Amino acid sequence: MRAFFKVFAIVLAGLAVTLAIVHFAWRVNEFKVAIPAANSVDHRVFNLAAETLRNQRAPVRIEVVTVENPQAALEALEAGKVKLAVVRSDAAMQGKAHTVLIMRREAAVLIAAKVGKLQKVTDLPNAMIGVTRDGPLDGSLLWPVLDYYGIGHDKMKTIRVPSEDVSTALRTKKVDGVIVVGAIFSKQVSDVVSDAARGVKGAINFIDIEEADAIAKRIPALESIEVEQGAFGGRPPRPAESFNTLAYSIRLVGTPKVESDDMAELVRQLYLIRQNLNAAIPGAGLMEAPDLDEATSYLIHPGVRAYVNGEQKNLFDRYSDYVYLLLFIGSGLGSVAVATLGWVRGNGNPQAMPVARVQAMLDAVRDATSRDELDATEREADAVFRSVFSAGAAGRLPEGGIASFSMAMAELRSRIAARRAALAA
Q1: pTM of this prediction?
Q2: Listed range (180-189, 215-224, 327-336) with the worst mean pLDDT
Q3: 105 in the Ramachandran plot: left (φ > 0), alpha (ψ -120 to 50) or beta?
Q4: Distance (Å, rounded) from C-alpha 147 to C-alpha 306?
Q5: 32-316 is classed in which CATH architecture?
């Protein structure tokens, strides 16, 4: 019985390993994402995404971690405190951050009166520009424009103008123009454009950055985009004709330490709920995977490549080697268990299957010289039969052993009868 318990322990160990692999395969992956405090849009997006994934019992979970600024988000990513971070494109190029998704593109829209001091980019020197966003008044996307034209930063003056005061600031000529940075089709940008139109006499002018392509080639973190006619609505449509401007992208970046398949699953789950997010937060559905065929200075996470190229491994692909190994081990353990049980139940008891006694009786019949010797052998055969029959009835013999014994006894009876006939002759 000791051998039986050993085999039983091995089987239990194999079962424990199998359960551990199954648990690992179906575990829920948790992703902490660092978002700067000033980025209220992505706070709403990822909080809603976290709630949606939790309600749908998705295999991934998201937890939002608020940080002070983009640099703090990247530091948390580098330190391993979070797996993801939301930063601007210029920050996304720093360190070892890998792009996972492009959340949206935010463009610089420079607005002025149709008749006024500010009509083109080269009019920026000595102009007063109202900045509608929060944060430091550093000129943001306008600095590369000034640098391209060789205009000193001190030549342009900026002042913070709350979005609700844009109309008043333009009407009272407190500012010569306003700049709003955001997604082109967002409500935020459309509202600022509408307020600017109410604050000027006549039509408004959208300043075209004609050299946007050239500037973007100089600065990889920036992109040149074309704002189409009527993008901001209104009547007449605003703008009246398309114009070029600069933009940067808001990116979800991740650490390369995250497994490719885990990151691919995260991207897949976010794509599945993208329309739900957009319904609640307009513009949230603009998220997209980076273009893998485009030459870029950004690092792209291998998991994103696996998802886009359809190379994401399913459960069987990821753990097939373990499954085959377990099947092989299980088959071997089963064979060992059967053999051991057979030994325990039959061969382990030398009296249960008297093979040597039956072989000796077969030899004795062949060498018998009298009927008395045959009678003695037949009486011994009867005793062996009763002993084996008792063991078989008690369930201590395997079926194969019983069949072999039956064949041996039939052969022994046949030899005894033949030897009797030979001695009688």
Answers
A1: 0.67
A2: 327-336
A3: beta
A4: 40
A5: 3-Layer(aba) Sandwich (3.40)
